[in-house]
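Quick entry, no commentary yet.
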Amino acid sequence: MKTQNFARTLVTSALPYANGYIHLGHVAGAYLPADIYTRFLRLCGEDVIHVSGSDEHGVAITIAAETESVAPQEIVDKYHFANLEAFRGLGIDFDIFGRTSWPEHHETAREFFLALHEQGYLVEKETGQFYDVEAGMFLPDRYVEGTCPVCGHDGARGDQCDNCSSTYDQIELKNPVSKVSGRPPEIRTTKHLYFKLGDFQGRLEEYVESHAARSGAETPATVWRDNVLQQSRSWLKQGLGDRSITRDLTWGIDVPLPGFEGKKLYVWFDAPLGYITNTRMLARERGEPDGWKRWWCDPESRYVAFIGKDNIVFHTLIFPATLLAYNESGRGDRHVLPDNVPADEFLNLEGRKFSKSKRWGIDLRDYLANHPPDPLRYTIVANLPESKDADFTWREYQARVNNELADILGNFVNRTMQFAGRYFDNVVPPLTATGEKEAEVKTLLAEDLRRCCDSPQSDDAILTELAPKYLKYFTRTDLVMLLELARAPKRVGDLYRAFRFREAALESMNVARAANKYFNDSEPWKTRRDRPERCATAINICLQVVRSLAVIFRPILPFSSGSMLAMLGLDAASAAEWESASELRIPSGHALGEPVILFTKFDDEMVEREVAGLIAASAPEPEGEKPEEPPIQVELKPEVTIEDVMKLDLRVATVVAAERVKKSDKLLKLQVRIGDLERQIIAGIGKKYEPESLLGKRIVVVANLKPAKLMGQESQGMLFAANSPENAPTLISILDDDADVRDGFIVR
């Protein structure tokens, strides 16, 4: 792979559906990483724009409109502006956040569609599609649910399974049910156009493999993450076929061909083109209508697409194929393909997936109504799901805020600012006390540090080399800190360029850790009395480090970075250059601003309140008072004596393993622990319980029942369960709340 230096970088974030509020999982997937990356490139002085917008077509919108009993346009208007406001509140800085409902976007989509049609890449087919007889409509994919034909997961959508990420034709779905009427649909014939994606198989294979690490000559910025490569290769290995590009919908972009009236363009085709529309609109807003071509049609432009893992193949195969087909048409300039697609895995919440239907989630707007933005930005990036799913918990949020932001970064800034205010009249003290001009020492030191950092020498070798030249100005402790600053921009910057944002956050915080150590090792509280010039040098360096930290943390903590600069009496321009983090730019005698507390600690009560709120929000809705049911008529079995009862050895047991009995939907095979004994029990509770839900439960069993065989499996006991004559049995596990009750205890 040939390494290329690009003149500019186009950054896009996946267009979120305008059918609901943005939640923290969305933020982690495509928006915060893109914002951090864009901010970093701007600090490096590079030409970059960040483009995104609302995806306002497709079935997700019409379902939301039906749920809220309003028109689709009202839905997209409501959520577009609400989500844009929430993004701004978190500091997500788009150059433009557009809309696919714009007339200009309809023009873009029709332009690309007709280009594909003219090139012969669209083919007409009659195909079976689910039809809801009761509703009188063909069912788009999201209007039907059933069992995944690949993994067997219930609740799979019409064209994609969220459990295994498989895609399929909707009529392959097993046990389909219409979400409109709740009834099984029938299959009817309809006419659609298909994109001949398979025609691009060879070119896409070459494109994907050009972004795989092979010889070591590739730069980290051009190598795709393993999850992106593997998912793309998996699709290519199966072979690319024709993909429907039209749908029977009432909301969306009309198909611009006769004979297809009433049909709309499929959202997979329409939505990614929103990146192009929005760039065109941005150029128009800036007074240069053709300026968008610099980003999309110049080979010296680099395109980076930030997405979640459920969008990978759309950005590595399908959208690139669309661009390749358009490039052949001669309708306009050739468009660049994504150079990198840094897709994140999913962010879960307190051990569970975000779920709108189950009301399990944290909307960004709700978070911002109660908490500041930067702690969330830091917590998410420090645990970003770059290679596997990650979990957001309020306990981790508390630990990040308290132990890192407050106790490390905030503590260093606060102690430095307070010390300078109290003992140096809120003015930057002199860096040196030897009579030489401070500026000359700074310049000479910067040149030497830059030269040394470019060499393969170790830190000890560099310090040994610098010591004779600078020990009359600085201690070895000073030089250690100054070397740390000199190395930080490249060390952190290389991680950003390789899309390793988690490590970049860690390395940024390590600079703050080193700064705290430097403050402690310098002991300014001692030297201010017996060596005031030494104290002045240390505090000068600490103040310089505060400015450097404002630069280094600016991509992640833009609001806090601004506060740090204000405390130093500096404006934003003082942190506008990434490499300046290595330099001592604040002159002696500079007046400082007023210190403020950067981060407030998050206490246990706050954690408990947030978790309790989550649980309460996800609780089932109360069904109201039920009418009193008549008493059950009971016919008792023949009487027994106390001696008969005493023959039963009733014990508390703990379920340690559970699985289904093959060829039975009713029987479960349980392994239970009764004190120091272990028994196997076959129980007819399979319709009521999933095996994994029973693990760890303490139940009551008859421990001395003579073994018997059920479905070829030996059962060495019986558990207690309760049921009405017509219902499945309910397991008796009334002892779970009593910590003093242990398995093996006798039940009387």
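second:
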Amino acid sequence: MESNYFLNTKTAGKWHKTGTKRRAGVAVPLFSLYSSGSVGIGEIPDLKLLVDWCCITGISIIQLLPLNDVGNDFAPYSSLSTFALDPMYLKVSQIKHSDTSQYQTALQKMAKKYRPILKRINYKIKKAKIELLWEIFKSTPITGINEFGDFKAANNFWLEDYVLYKVIRELYPGTGWENWPEGLKFRDKVAIEEIRIGNIERLEFHRWMQWQLFEQMKDLKYYAAGKGVFLMGDLPFLVARESADVWSNPDLFRLNLSAGAPPDMYFALGQKWGMPPYNWDNIANNGFKYVKEKLKFAENFYDMYRMDHFVGLFRVWVSGVNNTDPSHPGSYMPPEEYLWETHGKRIIDEMISASGMLPCAEDLGTVPGCSYHVLYEYGIPGIDFQRYYKGNFAFRAPSEYRINSIAVLSTHDSSFWLNWWQFEAGTIDEKLFEMMCDKAGIEFSHCKYAKSVLFNKKLSRYGRLYWNDAVNSPQKLAEVFNRPVEAVQDIAYLYMESYGEKQKFMNYLGVNPAESMSETELMKKCIGRINSSNSIFSIQLLQEYLSIDEGLLEKMGKWDYRINSPGSVSRKNWSILLPVSLERLLELNINDDIKSIIKETQRT
């Protein structure tokens, strides 16, 4: 069996624990879920219903988007802590060592008041829930609870700095730590001690909430294990500049820099995320304790973890915090390419030794050459993203997918597959086209003319340009610009990638384009095809599975129905709601179809 190769890699011990079966999985952000008992947002115990659904459909992996405590933008990949979980995910009625029966009416009112607005999460629920938890905490005796004491002792490495940060943040609302009074900003012992003495109860409250989150997550893991379902945690690569981690350990970060992504065909000036890159030398000098403790804590909840922005372990794109000069977008750190593999392996070795969890890698974007063979050497699955996984401008056959990969139809940063098919396949981004014209030295007026000739106006919408059928070669494309193909090679490359994309995809599916097929049938065919890939895992967002249902597909088939739009700030980001409750999910007729697909593709 080809997958036995995993048992001869550097992660062999982890594979012995999980087995090397071909597995199917489901990915989901907890905030999207809801049950009849949810209060304003998906809550940790609700995930037991998703575990039950996995058992019904034959799925054996649940991948959760980050559950970290988030800031005001509620972006899970830019959190206030890489350790602490967000209290909004607590199910108040199930907190331990407390009688919550007297708060049932308050919870019912809260659920009604903060119900989702226009099918989007109302994040005011977080503040309201914490206020109620504070009332419960004040009326609950907590002395002598051994589990609470054990939790505090075991997590002292991060917990004390986190609760201090949270309390000071409450004392100075709307003010980042860099603008706190000098004594607090630089953690003067006297100033910090004053906070400890003056806020004993509030500090303990934040410890208590983290313990309650810990207990509910531990209980979830135990439940999932009993049902044969593995939990995969998505661990953010970076942490927000405004975070407990950066405030308490500034020497572990390079605060004069901002991490991001290099210029590419989609972002001409690159991306600037605002999060500080790590100071790996200082982290190494401290025995990689920061990295190890993070994984040690996560192992309480997860069997596997996804290394976000895995390629950043080799080198990360950085620019100066105050750099606004578009001619100097940034550079890699370290800059020397010959150092990248050694640099990455040093970190990966420490991560592997730190826990028994199976690591998986998000290796999308601009990928250094060393990444592929390092992942293979270590037995770590990367990501093979179907719509971009091409060769010679055609979709790769399922047999060509990497054995050490997770096959996906979409990600939290992309459109869902159906929306890609309806609104993006066979198109290019309008702003990208204009940017490339400018880069090629084409005057705006000629660019405007070319746009009218090259693209089908009726089929171009939502900022996407659909190619005219008549533009059936790169040469015809170049003729419109009165240039040789070489002079417009970036545009020609995009053309080759996207022209006739739907026809190419039908060929990949093995379907005759003339064959009449409903969108649900096409969706079912698509899920079957991705599950038949050579990849050890096939993990799809829950919405992809739900698209097999005609009624649910109709609710989700909107061009702006997505989890996140990178490079944008909008209340539509990180707020999407599932079109069906978890109780209803268990009763869907399509569950049998999903189970059949997974069985037919020899997954479990």
